[in-house]
Design a protein that fits this description.
CATH class of the largest domain in chain B: Alpha Beta
CATH topology of the largest domain in chain B: D-Maltodextrin-Binding Protein, domain 2
CATH topology of the largest domain in chain A: MetI-like fold
Order of helices and strands of chain A: HHHHEEHHHHHHHHHHHHHHHHH
Helix content of chain A: 55-70%
Strand order of the largest sheet of chain B: 2-1-4-3-5-19-8
Largest sheet of chain B: 7 strands, mixed
Number of strands of chain B: 20
CATH superfamily of the largest domain in chain B: Periplasmic binding protein-like II
Strand content of chain B: 15-25%
Largest sheet of chain A: 2 strands, antiparallel
Largest interface: A-B, 63 and 75 residues
CATH class of the largest domain in chain A: Mainly Alpha
Radius of gyration of chain A: 31 Å
Strand order of the largest sheet of chain A: 1-2
Distance between the termini of chain B: 57 Å
Number of helices of chain A: 21
Radius of gyration of chain B: 25 Å
Shape of chain A: flat
Helix content of chain B: 40-55%
Number of domains of chain B: 2
CATH architecture of the largest domain in chain B: 3-Layer(aba) Sandwich
Structural class of chain A: mainly alpha
Number of helices of chain B: 20
Oligomer: heterodimer
């Protein structure tokens, strides 16, 4: 119980620290504006003012140029998109054909998607500019303080050198951070925004415009409308996604540990041979082996022919397990669910086995030794020494495995695509299948039905579920002082 | 030293990020310059760049006209030859025509990803026409653009319409407006059978067909879990599909058809067929495997599997229109969705005039004849279709015989999953022949699911 509160407390602590830092930043800015001299205050308008006063002309020039660049960006680029952000465009595309030039001529039409994307980009640029602007004032105020106290004020070369020295982390991180903002943060924000629009097949830019619809898509997902079955499908797909992630993670994890224990055992012969054979499944690309599996287990595949020939199919039909003429390994709910998890065991165990082998090699031998002397049997050793140690070391990996399985597109898609057709008419009306994970459903909605808005909503849901789970699980696993137990 | 290492690491991180993000827009475009047709060099040009250049160089005649053309992988060599002929037909104009690979069945997906960056002229299957029109990706050919045909090609759009079969023109049109040029037909399904096991007479009705197959210890294969195939029973009984302006599909399958059959009766016929020991329900896309494996002695399939059937059935290879099925007391001819291959022009093409001329050229009589000779695609051009070589082709003859009972595929995106599910329920025997209420409920849900608003 204590541990649990500890877990939540550390989440709270992290959040508190985050907001505290923001608060301090604003406080610093406020102080700088109030207490700064005329040039610090002038820096609010002309970014280079404070530096120019302290004779840091190079810096003043850079800041002035940066300011000019942002103004230029705002006027020449942002202003052609951001004013339309509230409507996402109103001018429909129209064209006339000119026989003299043999070309089509277009009006100056709006493209909702471009408006959305470039407005968002502008907001990000402005947000960064705001931080730079505030930070700048704080910096020049500190320069003023240094000058007033008679301390040394860096010249430009010294400043540059500091980026290879005490400020080296900034030099290192600026490029990766830029990359993350452009390639990760902006797309995620875009996805979130799309969830509040009616961007779908009936509203595809550039020919058609889309616009804001508020929370309509979310209410559709949670059963807001009567004709829509999205709510019905979402609950079932989410349910299977959770069941799948749980079993897929657990079975491969324990399977991997057992397998590596077996291989590490002194009684096993030909260890290297077995290990190589198991690792072979990694060497073959997943999509090859999974598609092969799919064909083997399909209704008219090899396994089904074999079962039918040895009379297993007939036997199963006699005892009432199946009603069809073939065993629906991958084509009926229940059967397919179990088969997918079993096939995944085969695909997933080798990875876990490799990890477990590595960890087990570092298992403190003194503990095993003393356990043996104390007369513990192999199961007791496993239960009280091996497992706790494994869990401690691989706990975080277990959490990421769960999240990975939550979004395990490959296994589900490759095993069920073109083989599984749902017989649940409510699911079919939402383009979902019982074996779909949220992520494969999302793929289907965007790829085949251009339903970007619902796909975005589902994407947000996936993110929320994964984020909450990861936060809680990590805090429980790593929180507390478990580490000391193994020191 | 450590710092340099760390710096390098950071750089690698950023570069890999950039590399990942860059991949998404690249699409291999085969470079097909005048003297280079035999050389299969692929040029890694992004679509964006090709399109941008065509925007910039777009200019009055006398300058180079840049066009991009997308066609199926198997058609590349043929397209290369036809494009050369097109260039030769307009010697006063210089062209830079790039030919890219894009399957006719997936053209819609690639084009709708970014219409403005897609090819100027592209081949696609007519089932994608509705989506492409809804997205405004296809240039309507009836507008001002129609002037280019008399001005440069010496024919009018009406001539083109008259030269091609009525069904193909209808499939290339929506609401009376023509959006693409018919390139080929035969994209429907009919019956292949092994005449050593089944006589031509037995192949006329499902009842005798299934009996003969069962007696021969073999099966008749058909895909039920696909709306493309299983609609054939309902369409045959007089039911219809209607694609509405808002993208929804209206089905009347849960009621009574103008011919006097109820949807329940049709579903019962399907169930009787599906439960027959001589019937094999084949998963969508698995037909060619079943043919090759020798599990079937007759199969409902299209011209694309002609070679496979010929190999499997050997001397017994035969093809004919689909059989009739027992519905209520009567024999009803099974219908089909007629499929056509079309060539359309991107509505956002800058050089729209020349793009239309190229599309028309690639689908004229000579080109269709060349396409039949190279790829055995059934011509839609009436003259080309009348040639002896075409009419003596078994599969194409059967396809045309079935086309008499063909319907243009007028359904929206929401139709497919509910229809596939209904077919799967029939195939699995989840519906019972004598449970009329259960069948009615399933049909009601099918109609409701297919008719759901596009959200």
């Amino acid at each position: 119980m204590e541990e649990r509160t500890g877990g939540f407390a550390s989440i709270g602590g992290a959040l508190g620290g985050f907001f505290g830092a923001i608060g301090r930043f604003f406080a610093e800015f406020g102080t700088a504006v109030v207490k700064g001299d005329a040039f610090v205050k002038l820096s609010l308008l002309w970014w280079g003012a404070g530096y120019a006063r302290r004779k840091q002309f190079a810096k003043a020039l850079i800041m002035t140029l940066l300011e000019a660049a942002i103004v230029w960006f705002t006027l020449s680029f942002a202003m052609s998109y951001v004013p339309k952000f509230s409507t996402l465009g109103t001018v429909q595309a129209e064209q006339v054909f000119n026989i003299a030039t043999m070309q089509s001529e277009w009006n100056d039409y709006d493209n909702s998607f471009m408006i959305l994307l470039f407005s968002l980009f502008s907001f990000v640029v402005w947000a960064v500019a705001l931080v730079v602007w505030m930070r700048n004032v704080v910096n020049v105020y500190q320069l003023q303080l240094q000058a007033q106290q008679g301390r040394h004020v860096n010249n430009f070369v010294e400043d540059l050198k500091s980026y290879l020295d005490e400020k080296f982390h900034i030099t290192l991180l600026s490029l990766p951070v830029l990359g993350i903002v452009v390639f990760t943060v902006i797309p995620i924000l875009l996805l979130i925004l799309v969830a509040f629009t009616n961007y779908d097949q009936q509203h595809m830019p550039p020919t058609n415009l889309f616009t804001w619809v508020g929370f309509a898509n979310f209410s559709a997902l949670f059963g807001g409308s009567i004709t829509s079955t999205f709510g019905y499908a979402f609950v079932r797909v989410l349910g299977w996604t959770l069941v799948w992630s749980f079993f897929a993670t657990l079975t491969t994890y324990f399977g991997g540990i057992l397998m590596s224990l077996l291989l590490n055992s002194k009684l096993t012969r030909g260890t290297k041979l077995w290990r190589t054979m198991l690792v072979m499944t990694i060497a073959v690309p997943q999509f090859v082996s999974l598609l092969l599996m799919r064909n083997l287990f399909s209704n008219t595949g090899l396994i089904n022919t074999f079962c039918s020939n040895i009379g297993l199919t007939g036997f199963l039909r006699d005892i009432g397990l199946i009603s069809s003429s073939t065993i629906p390994f991958l084509s009926a709910p229940g059967w397919a669910h179990v088969m997918i998890i079993i096939i995944n065991i085969w695909v997933g165990i080798p990875y876990q086995m490799l990890i477990a082998t590595g960890v087990l090699m570092n298992l403190p031998t003194d503990q095993l030794e003393s356990a043996r002397i104390d007369g513990a049997n192999p199961f007791q050793t496993f239960r009280h020494i091996t497992m706790p140690y494994m869990l401690f070391v691989t706990g975080p990996a277990l959490v990421t495995d769960f999240v990975k399985n939550f979004n395990n597109f490959n296994v589900i898609y490759l095993l069920t695509q073109d083989v599984y057709v749902t017989t649940d008419q409510f699911m079919a009306a939402s383009q979902a299948r019982e074996v779909d994970l949220l992520v494969t459903w999302l793929f289907n909605l965007t790829q085949n039905y251009y339903n970007y808005k619902m796909a975005s909503v589902i994407g947000i849901m996936v993110f929320v579920v994964c984020a909450v789970f990861t936060l809680i699980a990590f805090n429980f696993m790593i929180g507390g002082n478990k580490e000391e137990g193994y020191q | 030293m450590k710092k340099i290492l760390a710096l390098l690491l950071a750089l690698v991180l950023v570069l890999s990020l950039a590399a990942c993000a860059g991949d998404t827009t690249t699409n291999d475009t085969t470079n097909d310059t005048t003297n280079d047709t035999t050389n299969d060099t692929t040029n890694d040009t992004t679509n964006d760049t090709t399109d941008d250049t065509s925007d910039d160089t777009a200019a009055p005649s006398g300058e180079t006209i840049s066009l991009t053309l997308w066609g199926a992988e198997e058609d590349q060599a043929l397209l290369g030859e036809l494009v050369e002929e097109f260039k030769a037909a307009y010697p006063d104009q210089t062209f830079d025509i790039q030919i890219g690979v894009e399957s006719e069945s997936t053209a819609r997906d690639t084009i709708l990803t970014d219409v403005e960056a897609a090819a100027d002229v592209f081949a696609f299957a007519n089932d994608q026409l509705n989506d492409l029109v809804a997205a405004g990706a296809l240039l309507p050919l009836d507008g001002d653009i129609a002037q280019v045909l008399p001005a440069y090609a010496g024919k009018t759009l009406d001539d083109v319409k008259a030269a091609n079969s009525a069904g193909s023109v209808e499939a290339a049109s929506k609401d009376g407006v023509m959006y693409a040029f018919p390139m080929g037909g035969g994209n429907n399904y009919f019956l292949y059978y092994d005449s050593t096991k089944i006589t031509a007479e037995q192949a006329e009705t499902w009842d005798t067909l299934l009996e003969a197959a069962a007696a021969a210890g073999s099966k008749v294969g058909m895909t039920l879990n696909s709306g493309w195939y299983n609609a054939s029973f309902f369409l045959g009984a007089g039911f219809s599909t209607v694609l509405n302006a808002d993208g929804t599909t209206t089905l009347d399958w849960n009621g009574t058809s103008p011919d006097g059959y109820t949807g329940v009766q049709v579903a019962q016929s399907m169930l009787n067929i599906a439960s027959h020991p001589g019937f094999l329900a084949v998963t969508d896309g698995d037909l060619s495997n079943q043919i090759a494996s020798g599990a079937v002695c007759a199969v409902v399939d299209g011209t694309w599997d002609a070679a496979a059937c010929q190999t499997a059935f050997g001397d017994g290879y035969a093809a004919t229109k689909l059989p009739t099925f027992t519905c209520g007391e009567d024999q009803v001819q099974q219908a089909c969705f007629s499929g056509f291959k079309l060539i359309g022009v991107n509505a956002y093409s800058t050089n729209a005039g020349w793009a239309v001329l190229l599309a028309e050229f690639l689908t004229n009589e000579a080109s269709q004849t060349a396409r039949f000779e190279a790829r055995q695609v059934a011509p839609t051009n009436l003259n080309a279709a009348a040639a002896d070589a075409v009419t003596s082709n078994l599969a194409i003859a059967a396809s045309s015989a079935q086309d008499v009972y063909g319907f243009v595929q007028d359904v929206g995106g929401k139709y497919w999953d509910p229809a596939a599910t209904f077919g799967q329920m029939v195939a699995n025997g989840e519906l019972k022949v004598d449970d009329e209420a259960g069948i009615q409920e399933a049909l009601d849900l099918l109609v409701e699911g297919a008719g759901a608003s596009v959200e």
